[in-house]
Design a protein that fits this description.
This protein is an all-alpha fold. It has a domain of about 80 residues: Histone, subunit A (Orthogonal Bundle). Helices cover about 70% and strands about 0% of the residues. The chain has 6 helices and no strands. Forms the NCT transcriptional regulatory complex with nctA and mot1. GO terms for molecular function: protein heterodimerization activity; RNA polymerase II general transcription initiation factor activity; TBP-class protein binding. Keywords: Nucleus.
């Protein structure tokens, strides 16, 4: 499929440092293999194209269902319709892990909100804790 079919991908990319980190996890320096810059750039282009393809298909599915938001179910249906059904189970496992991580973050933010203290009060408590720590260790 061409860029024209998707409206053009020229301004879309993935962070090179993030892609390099993923590649390094898969091909550690100890492996003796090197992943060249041109290979990394090609990988980024392929990833953007893949994401665009899945997103476009998922959008079509959500529109057919008269939904305004693309849900996980739309993504999994898109993957299956495009021949990537073998990846659905693993993707759902990763999605569930992500949801669990988000729950932990929400609990932390709710803890602050539920404290009943203002931001100024919390800041004063933090500054006092820093002064106490400095006196003990300084």
């Amino acid at each position: 499929m061409s860029d024209r079919e998707f409206g053009g991908n020229d301004d879309l990319s993935l962070p090179k440092a993030t892609v390099q980190k993923i590649v390094t996890e898969i091909l550690p320096p100890s492996s003796g293999l090197v992943f060249g810059k041109d290979a990394r750039d090609l990988l980024i282009e392929c990833c953007v194209e893949f994401i665009t393809l899945i997103s476009s298909e998922a959008n079509d599915i959500s529109e057919k269902e008269s939904k305004k938001t693309i849900a996980c179910d739309h993504i999994t249906k898109a993957l299956e319709q495009l021949g990537f059904g073998a990846y659905v189970q693993e993707i759902m496992e990763v999605a569930n892990e992500h949801k669990e991580q988000l729950k932990g973050r929400e609990k932390k933010s709710n803890k602050l909100e539920q404290s009943g203290l203002s931001v100024d009060q919390l800041l004063a408590m933090q500054e006092e804790a820093f002064r106490d720590a400095a006196q003990r260790h300084g």
